Amino acid sequence: MLKAILFDVDGTLAETERDGHRIAFNLAFRDAGLDWDWDVELYGELLAVTGGKERIRHYIDRHNPDYPAVADEAAWIAGLHKAKTAHYLNLLADGEIPLRPGVRRLLDEARDQGLRLAIATTTTPENVTGLLEATLGKASIDWFEVIAAGDIVPAKKPAGDIYTYTLDAMQLAPEECIALEDSANGVKSALAAGIPVLVTDNAYTAQDDFTGAVSILSDLGEPGQPIAVRAGPAPT
Ligand code: XBP
Ligand code: MG
């Protein structure tokens, strides 16, 4: 019996990447005097690596191997990432990033039916609460029994750690839950924890391999706005 819905955040609750995280990374680079510019296409490639600090590390390895010329590289990246988070939180607070279609409705219906809710994400915890506060109001943070985010587990998605952590915290079996994801890394992560997963894809993930997902949908739909079913059973 379904007892809980476990939500990914970036790309699933909202289209946060192109006009949110990407912009915030670029603002932080500018502040730091770096001439790095992650355009929409490059950012799509960099999304293969989850986690902002890990993404910066990967970019340096691939595109700027001479950076940073500092003794403590990890601390330098952490500082740059902290500045990025501040910019991202400002974008959220300015109301720049709306929820995806149907997200609010699903949350309302799930709560009405007594389903338990949680979040399992790679992003920084403040980014989750910032998004919830800006879109659904501060009280919505308490709708989620567990907000599992960021560095709380050693290995980020596609590893299953963040979902396993969430199951343990909720004392639930994987088959009592469904995960909602937007990316191949997210699908792999949920499946690694044994959790069935439903996908709502987006421009950055439309070509991803979603093998193992229950269904792949364009979005959760709004009245008068039909859902495109890419694969699997249509929602009822
Ligand atoms: C989301 C991410 C995150 C965000 C950036 O993946 O990969 O890294 O892009 O967040 P998922 P931070 O949706 O699979 O959880 O910069 O705060 O790490
Ligand atoms: Mg995602």
UniProtKB/TrEMBL annotation:
It holds the Pfam family Hydrolase. CDD domains: HAD_CbbY-like (cd07528). SUPFAM superfamilies: HAD-like. InterPro entries: CbbY-like (IPR044999), HAD-like_sf (IPR036412), HAD-SF_hydro_IA (IPR006439), HAD_sf (IPR023214), PGP-like_dom2 (IPR023198). Gene3D superfamilies: HAD superfamily/HAD-like, Putative phosphatase, domain 2. GO terms for molecular function: hydrolase activity. PANTHER family: CBBY-LIKE PROTEIN (PTHR42896:SF2), XYLULOSE-1,5-BISPHOSPHATE (XUBP) PHOSPHATASE (PTHR42896). This is Phosphatase. It comes from Halothiobacillus diazotrophicus. The lineage of its organism: Bacteria, Pseudomonadati, Pseudomonadota, Gammaproteobacteria, Chromatiales.
